[in-house]
Amino acid sequence: MKNNRGESKESSSSNLDSRFNQTLRNVQGLLQGRSFPGKVLLTRRSEISNDSNLSRHTPDIERSYSENDIEPSELINRSSEGETQYTSNNDTTATTNKLKPSMSNIESTSGDAHKTVMGARATDSARVMKFTKELSGQTLRLETLRELAWSGVPPYLRPTIWRLLLGYAPPNSDRREGVLTRKRLEYLDCVAQYYDIPDTERSDDEITMLRQIAVDCPRTVPDVTFFQQLEVQKSLERILYTWAIRHPASGYVQGINDLVTPFIIVFLSEHMQGNMENWSILDLSTQKISDVEADCYWCLSKLLDGMQDHYTFAQPGIQRLVFKLKELVRRIDEPVSRHMDEQGLDFLQFAFRWFNCLLIREIPFHLVARLWDTYLAEGDALPEFLVYIFASFLLTWSDKLQKLDFQEMVMFLQHLPTQNWSHQELEMVLSRAYMWHTMFNSSPSHLAS
User: Fold this and answer.
1) Distance between CA atoms of 293 and 187, rounded to whole angstroms?
2) pTM of the model
3) How many domains does the chain have?
4) What is the C-alpha separation between 265 and 138, in angstroms, rounded?
5) Do the beta carbons of residue 289 and residue 393 sit within 8 Å?
6) Looking at the structure, do residues 172 and 251 belong to the same domain, yes or no?
7) H/E run at residue 222
8) Tell me: the pLDDT tens digits for 271-317?
């Protein structure tokens, strides 16, 4: 028995090392013609040869500035003080059990995603068979589903898998349809109780909150025309107001409106075909619209249950993670960290929005669903893993940032050149995040001298 346990431990350690080394090899395959911060650290770990001719590629086209951009102080002032309603359980060791990020190219629901030469990892037949096999059982293994989803989910399976990853749909297939029906009816009751009432039955604070939501909904993802439809905005308004009323510890905070948008697109994709830009929500029945809203509401609730202090008074959860991000960047790329300090740039000035909106405003919208596959696969460990993703995202432009003064850095970080990004750039960000998490998370003082 002891020998079997010892062999099992050795096998587990060997599998982890194998996944880590394979990730390194995959990243090196993407690094033809570019370099990235932290390469020296990774070279020490993996003994990969150093190519002095590697150079960075930075897209020249910058994303337009959104009128919905918000300052940290504005967010803090608009949040409400109150008692927290839920508790979270952050498992900071969960990520090391995930499969390595793949160099996948997942077809976007909108049809606008750029295709790369790296292969369609999320939609190849072997992975589809694994997803299908896992979903076909009476009781699925959630950890196995997380490992598969981490590297990307085929678009047509996303609605089902997202519900399962968030715990909205139960793993037991016999109970699934009944639970969804009951929760959708419960959402309808909440809308009738809290939203479909005259203003005379609302408090002054509730009226103010509803008006703020009504102002923010038309500003949500302004560069995606689908979200300019009046009925889409009304659905968004119902979801946000109902959520805010039922979560008085935070109430509505700007930025939460962005977090609903991936759910809307993914759950509508079950009912609508073709390019997202050509969708019309008026083509759906009232029942289907209500079902989509309910799924968005409950999945948003599940997501935010694990990040409750990100949106309570003064948003301490975000401030804590911004500090961790600054420390991690210092350990990975000391030159850029020192330059930002010398120029007086505080991480709160740009990273607050990243944590608040989970990068939805920073990358093309057709990449958001792929990014959220990884987010949701992380489960309770997501808040901690966000630090690694955002460090990888920031250090994509390490060389560029070191050449800018304070004002130039502020402008650059507000208008990041991601407009022409494809899945390849996003997979690079996730791959580096995975490796740095593997290196630093279990030994936070590693290479911190």
Assistant:
1) 8
2) 0.75
3) 2
4) 28
5) no
6) yes
7) none
8) 999 999 999 999 999 999 999 999 999 999 999 999 989 999 999 99
